[in-house]
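Researcher: I'd like a structural prediction for the single chain below. Treat it as a standalone chain; there are no partners to consider.
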Amino acid sequence: MNLRRMFMLWQFHVFQIQNTIIKRFCKEQVIVTVNGLFPGPTINVREGDTVIVHVLNEGPYDITLHW
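Model: Treating it as a single chain, here is the predicted structure.
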């Protein structure tokens, strides 16, 4: 068996898109976050890995994800 093939990974992620209220300089603002984070989480992969991302858009707007 090919050694590289033995170490190929399947990664599963869930991205929960939501509006989050932040407070900066005594002013509240609503921003779009992924899993409560801005910027969203980093996904580290290697060539040959398989990545599955399940996106739950719980915000009031349509979104576009850029990779």
